[in-house]
């Protein structure tokens, strides 16, 4: 059975609820957030909100699933037929851009993982794990051909995640240590490009 397309108003309200949910969850966490807070932030009544999402869990899970797809898109874009160093560096660049552009989403995702991923584990063990395995096979092939340095490919991916998402998840700490007059993401992008160029040199 086909789902009836949403009207413009329904699309607008749905987006407003997700945006409000992101704000509220980012400040209060899942346990501290309430539907009343999300409805108020979205400019809707609670019954109206419940027309679009049946529960707080549904809003939270929708946000997490969207973020997971956004997070995985740059890894999907890694081209097995491309030049290996350029492909990996492009992945690093896109990841730091995501950390810059979606800091609330990154922290929301990080908090879910720190709690043991109770709502997202099926996706992590499924789509995420499968994609990482697929791209690690590509990295291993490049390493075997001597086109980039040999190292455990999965841990290479982990290190890229850690070194890019850190700038979103620990933004307050990064900015406090760097002090005024610094652009953390521009500086990080330049540094990480240099770091991975040297690390991956055959």
UniProtKB/TrEMBL annotation:
An example Gene Ontology molecular-function term: transcription cis-regulatory region binding
Keywords associated with the record: DNA-binding
GO biological process per UniProt: negative regulation of DNA-templated transcription
Source domain of life: Bacteria
DNA-binding interval(s): 34-53
Pfam families referenced in this protein's UniProt entry, alphabetically: TetR_C_3 (PF08362), TetR_N (PF00440)
Residue intervals of the HTH tetR-type domain: 11-71
Protein name as catalogued: TetR family transcriptional regulator
Source organism of the structure: Stagnihabitans tardus
């Amino acid at each position: 059975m086909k789902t009836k397309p949403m009207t413009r108003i329904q699309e607008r309200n749905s987006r407003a609820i997700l945006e409000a949910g992101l704000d509220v969850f980012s400040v209060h966490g899942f346990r501290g957030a309430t539907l009343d807070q999300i409805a108020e932030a979205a400019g809707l009544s609670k019954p109206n909100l419940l027309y679009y999402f049946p529960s707080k869990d549904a809003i939270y899970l929708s946000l997490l699933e969207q973020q997971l797809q956004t997070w995985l898109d740059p890894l999907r874009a890694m081209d097995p037929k491309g030049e290996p160093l350029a492909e990996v560096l492009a992945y690093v660049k896109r990841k730091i851009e995501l950390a810059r552009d979606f800091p609330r989403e990154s922290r929301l995702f990080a908090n879910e993982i720190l709690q043991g991923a109770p709502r997202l584990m099926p996706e992590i063990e499924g789509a995420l794990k499968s994609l990482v395995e697929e791209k690690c096979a590509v990295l291993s092939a490049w390493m075997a051909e001597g086109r980039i340095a040999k190292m455990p490919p999965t841990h290479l991916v982990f290190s890229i995640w850690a070194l890019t998402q850190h700038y979103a998840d620990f933004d307050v700490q990064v900015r406090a240590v760097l002090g005024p007059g610094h652009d953390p993401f521009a500086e990080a992008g330049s540094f990480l490009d240099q770091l991975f160029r040297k690390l991956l040199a055959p």
